[in-house]
Amino acid sequence: MEIVVAHTPDPDDSFMFYAMFEGKISTRNTYRQVVKDIETLNREAPSGTYGVTAISANGYAYASDKYALTPSGASFGISYGPMVVARRDIDLSSAVLATPGRYTSSHLLYQMFGPKPAKMVEMRFDLIPEAVQNGKVDAGILIHDEQLTFQRRGLVKVLDLYEEWKQYAGELPIPLGFNAIRKDLGKEAIDGFKADFQASIVYGKEHEDDALKYSLRYARYSDIELERKFVRMYVNELTVDFGERGRRALRMYYDRAISMGLLPDFDLEIV
C-alpha cells in the first residue's frame, strides 16, 4: 500500500524518515513524502489530508476523529522545551507576543503557564527571532532549532516553558510533536507503518552522520554540528517508543488544557 507521509523540514523529522525514504531498510508499505511547516500540517489535519502527518500535541485534539497517534517518532523535551525570548527582560503581561501558531504545542503551553500578554501575533516560527530583534514584536515563543541560535541575535530568555511544565508535572517529559496515522487505513497498513517507522528511527540513530547529512537537505542551517545537537535533543530515548512515561505526560498535558477550557474534550487514541 502507498501511504503519503507529511512531515516538517525540521532536522529531527527528516532524520527519523531517512532510512524509509532512502531505501536503507526494507518496508512493508511504500511511501511518498510531502514536506510542510508544522502549523500548516496542524491546520490540514482535521481534513484527513495525509495518511500519516506530523502533528503538534495541541493540534491532535482537533483531528482525533480521523487520526491516532503512533508511539514512535514523538518529540518530547526531557529537560528542555519551548522558550520565550525578548531583547531584554520585560513584563510579558504588557507585551506583544509572537507565537508560531495557535495549534502548536508551544502556543498551548504558553497559555497554560505564561501570563496573558497584551496581544498575541501568529507568525511562522522561523521568522520570530528576527521580528523580536527588529522590534516588530516585544517577545516571541521559540521552537525547533531557533532555540539554539537566538543568542546570536542578542536576545535573552525571559520565560522557560519547560521549567513551568516541570513545576506542574515533575520529571515527566514535555509533549511537543507527534506522528499521527489515519485510522481508516486499516490495521495491516497501520501495523506496517509502525514497524517501518520504528526501524527507520533505529537505523538513523545507528547511522547518525548519514542521517544528519540527509536531514540537511531540508534544514534552515547548514551547520551539521548545530543540527546534530538539535536532533539529539528531540530524537531521544522516548522517540522509538514513548511508552507509559509518554502516555502519562500526554494525559497531564491534555487534562490541564481541557480543565482550563483551552482544548475541547476528546478521545486520545494511540495505536
Report what the structure shows.
There is one protein chain. This protein is of the alpha/beta class. The protein folds into 2 domains: 2-76 and 174-259, D-Maltodextrin-Binding Protein, domain 2 (3-Layer(aba) Sandwich); 83-169, Periplasmic binding protein-like II (D-Maltodextrin-Binding Protein, domain 2, 3-Layer(aba) Sandwich). 38% of the residues lie in helices and 20% in strands. The protein has 10 helices and 11 strands. It has helices spanning 11-21, 38-44, 57-60, 105-113, 128-133, 161-169, 187-206, 208-215, 224-234, 243-259; strands spanning 2-7, 30-35, 52-56, 67-69, 75-77, 83-86, 96-99, 119-122, 139-142, 156-160, 174-182. Strands 1, 2, 3, 4, 5 and 11 form a 6-stranded mixed β-sheet that branches. Strands 8-7-9-6-10 form a 5-stranded mixed β-sheet. Helix 1 links the parallel strand 1 and strand 2 (30-35). Helix 1 (11-21) crosses helix 7 and helix 7 (187-206) crosses helix 8. The longest helix has 20 residues, at 187-206.
CATH architecture of the largest domain: 3-Layer(aba) Sandwich
Residues in helix, %: 25-40%
What is the tally of helical segments?
10
Assigned CATH superfamily of the largest domain: Periplasmic binding protein-like II
What structural category do the secondary elements indicate?
alpha/beta
Q: What distance separates the N and C termini?
A: 18 Å
- What's the CATH class label of the largest domain? Alpha Beta
Number of domains: 2
* Shape, per Cα inertia axes: globular
* Overall pLDDT confidence: 94
CATH topological fold name of the largest domain: D-Maltodextrin-Binding Protein, domain 2
The main sheet comes to: 6 strands, mixed
Organism: Thermogymnomonas acidicola
Function: Catalyzes the conversion of cyclic dehypoxanthine futalosine (cyclic DHFL) into 1,4-dihydroxy-6-naphthoate, a step in the biosynthesis of menaquinone (MK, vitamin K2).
Pfam families: VitK2_biosynth
Protein name: 1,4-dihydroxy-6-naphtoate synthase
